[in-house]
Please model this.
Amino acid sequence: MQNNEKAAAAASAAPAAHAAKKPPLITITKRDDSTLLRKIMARLIAIVAALIVSAVVTVLVTDSDPLKLFQTIFDGAFGSDRIWGTAEDVAILLGVALAITPAFKMRFWNIGAEGQVLVGALAGALVMMTFGGVPDWLACLGVAVSGIMAGALWGVIPAFFKAQWRTNETLFTLMMNYVAIQLIKFFLKVADKSGSSTVGATLLQHGRFPVLFGQPYLLNLIVIAVLTALMFIYLRSSKQGYEISVVGESENTAHYIGINVKKVIIRTMLISGALCGLIGVLLVETSQSIDPNLAKGNGFTAIMVSWLAKFNPIIMVFTALLIVVLSRGAENVATIMGLNKSFSDILTGIILFFIIGCEFFINYKVHFNRGSKAKREAGDA
Amino acid sequence: MPRLYQIREGSITVGFESGTEYALQLRNVTKAFGTKVVANKNVDLDLKKGEVLAILGENGSGKTTLMNMIAGIYRPDSGEIFVDGEPVVINSPKDAFKYKIGMVHQHFKLVSVFSATENVILGIRDGERYNLKRAAKKVAEISARYGFDISPTKKTYEMSVSEKQTVEIIKVLYRGADILILDEPTAVLTPQETEKLFDVIRNMRNDGKSILIITHKLHEVLAISDRVAVLRKGEYVGTVNTAETNEDQLTEMMVGKRVSLNIARSEPKDPTDRLTVSNLNMVSAEGVEVLRDVSFTARSGEILGIAGIAGSGQRELLESIAGLRTLTGGTISYVDPDNGNTVDLRSKTPVQIRDLGVRLSFVPEDRLGMGLVGNMDIIDNMMLRSYRHGHSIFVDRQPPKTLAENIIESLEVATPSAQTPVRRLSGGNVQKVLVGREIAAAPSVLMAAYPVRGLDINSSYMIYNLLNKQKESGVAVIYVGEDLDVLLELCDRIIVLCAGAISGELDARTATKEQVGLLMTRVKGGARDAK
Model:
């Protein structure tokens, strides 16, 4: 009993003892309970904060009016002369994101979308160059089929090695990008003896896709819209989509219920690569030219689009839109306000930093221990 | 076991130089993970010098979290810890050693190519030069003093589980710990090894050490401890003197209400052979023989128990029957209860086995890693077994939804809804979902590996009842378990696996725990496999 009293007496003197040995300042715990409202608020705050920081940086560096900056960003994305370009960019980025999503859902880190798009474009371009003397519809079909098959092949090679020998798909798909780029460089050398760095409309004559209602980008938009709906249904309600989820979550479980994991890996990458190839075809048809930079890094940006949307195709429409609006806005800032091209990259970087960073605050909670100690003392009193 | 009590009476009066009789005291210790899980709430605890205090509580009652706070692995959110009456803040295991507190974890942390001594001195910075010989001598001294049975130069990879545990305990003693925390030390031991460990614990206590031992096996609590502190759902319930309590009272303190601890075992009704395996052999990817000439028959209306030290081939055996692993030899034949035809299951995939009309259900030991998908909701987990039905390319979520709702209702699964990801459920509820799904397939053979591991008492008895009901309806049940008391109470026959071979078969109604324990460490009459 005496000891208990002693303990109690010591407890009241404890804060002094604590001061000698400080607990860590910050503790981070995972939270499972983020409400929808919280998630939306966190993202809104992130966007606002990103815009404020961009404005501050712009004012400090260039001495411009911050309100004009936001106006320019908005015009860059939605101005009447730029809106179709924005829509096209969204369509292509969304398309690539849709293509890689089944693979990512299966935890197959396909960072080779760039290469898969490029080989699709290359195969399409080859047909466009050579398919003279056949009906136009057949040439179009040839462009589409060859592009899709080339993309599928580029996707299936790493999948086969992964399924068969468990090679690392990240490195494999990454390296395949460079192979694709070199192939296009080789094609340029061979196809255009003039030494130009792109091959343009004069050589890519056959199998041109029709232009709908005088809008060159409209076909792409329709294709991607249909693709979005199909991918949503495929992942959510098809047996194959279900198998992809199971393999991605736990290969052991897949094995246990008798899913042929190798088959699912190969099949899924076949689809992923084929869709990338299709996007490549759309790109080469729209621009009527091909060069190693045709995919413009969309194969990598698409990973972010897909992840930010948690692999939900419908939400990807918005994440793709967000990223395109920001980058086109920043681009416009650089041109209109007469700034260096790199400045738009800086703005995009700032904005993405905030958007991605806010995910941390949605998934984790940060405690500052000084605050909790004060609370504890208040509780004791 | 009157002998134990005698020793206890003799030990309490040992004198100490310092002023307090308490080695360790906790006051109002609280620890929460995230916003929802409160692992410990206002826990008080007193550990006297020179006593064995058992920390008793069901899984999830916060025993290990509490011990981790004492050992410096977690930091309490609030509350005080006193060592020898002085308030202390323990921020790291290093701090804990400063206060002479050492913890032996459930999962060993040893370097397998090191010898016992090397493992013991690993990480010690006492300012002295590295001297393996001197250290080995000290290890030998400690061993002799407390009755450990270990050679200081033996390599860890050559050690049995119980020897590895010994090294972990010596590690703590070598660093001069006076307060030892043992986290479920008997979970991996045979009855004989447990007795040996208890002798050591008594020696340490008689030497003046204070020992906190975590366990949920009641008879062990009664055998080894002086006092018992009970936790329930993170809260401290109370402390009782072991000599003045019994299993019923402790269970009531643990669960919060009276629980009947009896398993109703019925006589098998006209058992017929359902699954016969003979001479199964398997070699692992590393070239180790994991199954050796395993033969047995599972009969309908009977529960066949499989006992053995963890990792004796239980997992490989069940997984090979389920078509998940490749055998190097042997046959598996299944007798179809509908027409009496015999089907060979060897080298068939799970899908092929199902297509043959074999109704084989399997509750694997790794629930969330194999039996279920943690991030999927209950409905989608139900669908794992049935999603292939029909020719449509789309899945039909209606039947699994009905099944999920039925299971939630009939097995009393505590879940917000059928759309809740199973990883959010507690261990017992996860297991109910899994067992419910496997039983819903109307199996004629049901294999269950450690189906009550990590479950609270109520859930455990619910699972036993479910297995018994399956047995009574004519299913051949194969039950792999670790608690020998339960195996003897639940099963009709028991086969014992040792190092991948069957070392004996017993009638569960007449066998004793000691018999099973002996077979667990003996390969067909020979000495324990040195490996």
In short: Chain B has four domains: 1-100+178-193+203-257, 109-175, 271-359+442-531, 368-441. The longest helix of chain B spans residues 191-206. The longest strand of chain B covers residues 22-33. Chain B touches chain A through 50 residues (CB under 8 Å).
